[in-house]
Amino acid sequence: MPEPRIAAALGPARPASGGLCAIIDIGSNSIRLVVYQGRTRVPETIFNEKVMAGLGRGLAANGKLAGGAMKVAVAGLRRFATLTRAMGIVDVQTVATAAVREASNGQDFIDLVAAECGLSIKVIDGEAESRGAAMGLVSGIPLADGVVGDLGGGSLELVRVSGGEMGNRISLPIGALRLDAVRKRERRALGPFIAKALGTIDWAGEGKGKPFYMVGGSWRALAQIHIWMTGHPLPIVHQYEMPASAPAQLFRSLAHTEIATLKTVPHISTSRLPSLPGAAMLLAAVVKKLGSSSVIASGFGLREGLLYAQMSADGVLEEGTY
Questions:
Q1: Structural domain containing residue 200
Q2: I need a labelling partner for 78 at 20 to 30 A (CA). Which of 103, 143, 186, 192 fits?
Q3: How far apart are CA 51 and CA 32, in angstroms?
Q4: Do residues 33 and 147 share a domain?
């Protein structure tokens, strides 16, 4: 059953403000600082910077955040903390997702960041991550009616959305970094690995004949590659629509495309390139599992969802907000 309103709070709401606010998002692959001009449904981005730390790469090996990745992450977070202080921003949220919440030394990392950077990290669980991704999608595409999938480095969140409401959802441990790790160990194991995870979705029929909305850096990169391959005249990812057959075609193309060629595609981080074949294979499998009518990219996700949840004093949007 859908919840009464998708904007159920992810945490204590803050008063609406026209001043600057910032979100530092510590993911399994990248860490990003985004500074917004106040809290609105479509907030203006003032500053946006990321660090590709790859915190989740060590999880598949030993369940821990790797020392080298932690060092890169702390250096980046120290810079982000300095930037927010220089901008005079007092409203800073620092959140962490799958890598930190699942790592056996996740608390050590949290303590290190607090000591070295002066940042207090809030670790959000899969449920909150799913809700945030859904709210972010609705903030950017208010009339969305289908299934939203947020692919991070460590996990995939799938959520049914319709009429501004959130229905069934699930968090699966098959992020882009994990897919890449499986693919590197044994290429033929990737398909069964994906199929086993998707087999746990007992509400997949709800997506039949409806769009699949993809969120996350790896899937947005696939949209950018599709734009480049098809010669689409507008290089704008948000709300870019592909046919349901496109993910499988992308997977086949990526299998025969040199990394050097992909490096020429605009606006794609080269550090993401190795994980894109796995991300494409997963996207094709998800679209087939759901019976999706098409695939639509969203430039809005968890970070925008965090803001969207806090637009009113009680964390719940009033009627007519969107």
A1: 142-299
A2: 103
A3: 6
A4: no
The pLDDT of residue 18: 52
Assigned domain for 307 exists: no
Helix 176-185 to helix 276-290 angle (10° resolution) is: 110
Buried b (16+ CB within 10 A) or exposed e, 150-163: bbbbbbbbbbbbbe
Whole-angstrom distance, CA of residue 77 vs CA of residue 218? 22
CA–CA distance, 198 with 179 (Å, rounded to integer): 13
For every residue of 182-215, DSSP letters joined together read HHHH-GGGHHHHHHHHHTT-TTGGGGTTS-EEEE
Find the radius of gyration of the CA atoms of the chain.
Answer: 19
Mean pLDDT for each 10-residue chunk of the chain (322 residues)?
A: 38 51 93 88 87 86 90 98 96 94 95 97 91 91 95 91 92 87 86 95 97 94 95 93 97 89 87 87 97 96 86 42 32
Asked if 279 and 166 sit in the same domain, the reply is yes
Alpha-carbon distance of 44 to 212, in angstroms, equals: 26
Q: Is residue 31 helix, strand or coil?
A: strand
Q: Which amino acid is at 88?
A: G
* Residue 265 domain flag: yes
Alpha-helical runs (H) found in the chain: 59-62, 67-86, 98-102, 106-117, 126-140, 176-185, 190-198, 217-230, 246-255, 259-262, 276-290, 302-308
State which of 126, 154, 178 marks the end of a domain: 126
Quote the tokens at residue 207. 């997506």
Phi, psi of 231 (to 5 degrees): 70, 30
Which two tokens mark 85?
């202080």
Residue 80 structure tokens: 């982000």
Q: What is the predicted pLDDT for the residue at 273?
A: 86
Other Cβ atoms less than 10 A from the Cβ of 79: the count is: 14
Residue labelled with tokens 């690995």? 193
Instruction: Count CB-CB contacts under 10 A for residue 110.
Output: 19
